[in-house]
Fold each of these.
Amino acid sequence: MLIILISLILCSGCSPSRRLARLVKMHPELQVADTLLVTDTVVVPQVEADTAFPLDHLHDTVLLQKDRLEVFIRKVHDTLYIRGKCKPDTVVIRKKIPVTKIIIAKPQSVWWLWGVVCLLIVMVFVLILKK
């Protein structure tokens, strides 16, 4: 009889996830919304290209620049050299991710529950001893 009573009490307990869900449902103030800021960095590599072709009427060197792009044109004898490159760049990505935190609060005193459990145990022992 006592073993059955103890096993029923142990089996009637809830899983931790169910207890947490019930606690949050009863006390929503324990649940706090927070935001994490995740910073990710992506490096764009440098790209270069070279080419050469003959050109008779260019007698100087030309450098074209705009932002990250550079084009260098140079004539040596009967050949035109063209070099272009795009400087490397770093792209920073920032994402805000919402996260729910739960504040751990001190549990309230349940001394009366221990009194009820002790009373039930005493009653079970009295019933067993009377038989």
Note: The chain has three helices and six strands.
Amino acid sequence: MDVVHARCAGIDISKTDAKVAVRVHREGKARADVRVETFGSSTPQVLKLRDWLVEAQVTCVVMEATGDYWRTFFYLLEDAGFELLLANPHAVRGLPGRKTDVADCQWLAELGALGLVAGSLVPPPPIRDLRALTRLRSQIARDRGVVAQRLEKVLEDAGIKLSSVATDITGVSGRAMLQALSDGIVVEDIVEMARGALRNKKAELADALTGRFTKHHGFMVKLLLEQIDRYDDDIDELTSRIDELVEPQRRAHDLLVTIPGCPARSPM
């Protein structure tokens, strides 16, 4: 097969270090020259690796890693002028011709030299930052949902059936009533706190709020409501930051949300 990259490097990455092979193809020689070195996974070590690859005049770097260990290497090498490819381990291992006595890094270097590796998509830094924030917001929203479920279990233990009447027990009305219940306010007064459509369900609310609600339940409800508040504050802060990062991509964003089923904001 034709050699696409005369100077190609393969990097097999683990948690603590990386095995690196630099493969140099020379015209007229049946076999390429291969040199293998080991570098640590810390930032100074990866920068040392970067200098070594630049000195070797490598034009293509193929890396493979389990999990997220590739990130440090990719981010520090991506602006060094190489063609940088993050290989899918399953795709690379499925290619025919591999010998069991060939180190992974040498195999990656050979595949890269022959142009047989299709790199995985790694977004540019601004999109990576945006993706990290949206994923964190989704995770926090899920955690908030877990706390809300715990809150409902506490109410069930107390015989309080607020969730059967109010759609969202952590909404404005539901929260105010739970806080009042924890403060020892009588049910008749709590019912008057209902807002919106709940005002038409006062009799149902009175029944739902009548139970064996003790100080123990009140302590737990207050604690869980405070946790929900913290999650809400974090979600608001993340949303504000996401909106800032989306602004340079506003035109693309506005076009994408016109697609049916593609919401303007990921569900909370």
Note: The two ends are 52 Å apart (CA to CA).
Amino acid sequence: MKPSERSGSRRARVLLVADPRRQHVGEASARLQEALRGKADVAQLAWSEQTDRIDGKEVDLLVVLGGDGTILSVARALGDQQVPVAGVNVGKLGFLAEFSVDGLIRCFDRLVADGCHVGQRVMLDVRSCPRSGEGFVSLAVNDCVIQAGPPFRMIELSIEVDGQHLTDVAGDGLIVSTPSGSTAHNMSAGGPIVEAGVHAFCVTPICAHSLTHRPLVVGADHEIKVVVNHANKETTAIVDGQFSTSLGGGDRLLVRRAKEALLLVRNPEQTRWHTLVTKLKWGLLPTDD
């Protein structure tokens, strides 16, 4: 993205990643490729299901055509090779995908001229430590959710922060989210909305059987450990709503700040509060209509 990162006057190398399940995505891909002809080298056109083909080593800008879910899967696939990602929304809400096709075309020269429109979003490093069998390690852009599952009786979780016991909570589960994910499941469960650039996590109980368990915001430099004291048959840990694994009694989850950050390209034609106000209608007063 920055001129110093490219040798001489070499054109920017752009990778298009598209979600073929979205209506009009083929048309959007064709329009972008035509508009970028002469301005950039379009390195590859990959589909979102083929995440093993996504390699950030030879890419200056990765353009994702789809919804926020496509960006989540692409960011996890990039792993430790994060590159600037510009999301073109052809889905519904588009909280992370700030651009329209026309908007990206208008802003493209500005975006590749310097790196001032690239924001760093905190991601989670999620690790499971089961009592038996192999665990998993995954990045998370939005959140890690522990959900009770059938037969939908309360589960019991013990939460530690940096090795110090915080609380035990009984209820339907727990959400640990990034600021990016604070407007997703976390918000629906009554958690706080956190500005995207803040280095923090939201720890939000889901339907806690208590009047005293409230959502908590902690600094992103802390490590959170969740121990499953009591689980249902299908209690599950879910990463970004896309990857899941079963949890049983005695299993543990460790959540910490990932070394990598999501490099999300901001739309210079919008304020940082644009999506919050226009799409979620935050803070709008009632009208006479």
Note: DSSP finds five helices and 16 strands in the chain.
